[in-house]
Amino acid sequence: MNRFWDKYPSIKIELEKVVAIMKENAKNREKTIENSILGLIDSGGKLLRPGFLIISGKFGEFNSDKLCNLAAVMEMLHMATLVHDDIVDEAKTRRGKETVQSKYGKDYAVYMGDLLFCRCFMALSNNTSMENMKLLSEAIYNICTGEIEQLTSHFSQDISTKKYLKRIAAKTAELFSLSFYVGAYESSCSNEMINNLSKIGYDIGMAFQIIDDILDYNSSSDIVGKPTGNDLREGIYTLPLIYAFKQDKIRLTPLLSKDNYSDEDISKIISITNELGGIDKARALAKRYTDRAFIRMEKLPDGDNKQLLIDITQKLLWREY
Q1: In this predicted model, what pLDDT tens digit does every residue of 167-179 receive, in sequence order?
Q2: Distances, alpha carbon 214 to alpha carbons 6, 9, 62, 63, 319, in Å
Q3: What is the C-alpha to C-alpha distance for residues 15 and 11, in angstroms, rounded to an integer?
């Protein structure tokens, strides 16, 4: 398991149960399928979505078995979206390991992602209400909508902050928010607390994705586990570049208008983006979302669980991977 949770043993214990549940769900007569899923589970993800579901559940009547099963669903859903995402991006590595599509081919990866979606709904049918089934279906719809919007806007210089924020709200913040919601709802929290925790999840999800996009500009592939500048190579223009492009279209337009970007082009775009303050401005917006989450957290009951959530949120804002 990723060492992210080492400082939080009460959550790590629950997440170990989540991993065990996912591995049980991975069992299949076809060992290639089983081993593929096990590889995804053991790839070193931070388990943020299941972790947040468990944390939110601890603000109410916490039922470990029920919430760990639901947390496993959230992570498997996230895994399914990553498998499909890697197909679209033709990604060779993720989290420092070879992707499913690279190892087994695109056709296999498509069916693997579909299989994981099916396992999610099978597990949900035994562990949650029809209302939450509906919410998860809507979340999957919104995630796919966000991914399609990103795909259709590849290499488009018609970029804006508004479009970007709408995209990441759908593809990332939606599932963070749902994880908080489900944990609180299934633990019989008050409607007010459920709503507040759901909004906290949304703000954390927005900040998380912005930071993730910043790391594509200023981190190293050894740290993040995938090639840096990869979004640029795919023609995915994220917030740092959007801010820089607003500042100086004249310098960036010739570079962005090329059919393919060389390593030198990528370096120049990153350098100009940094010089124009795009990275700093993006980090400032991530901080604003995080600060809003902290304001909402002030309404939560005082105690170790609240402090743990504050600590983790701060840690995510300044992470390097």
Answers
A1: 999 989 999 999 9
A2: 25, 30, 36, 37, 11
A3: 6
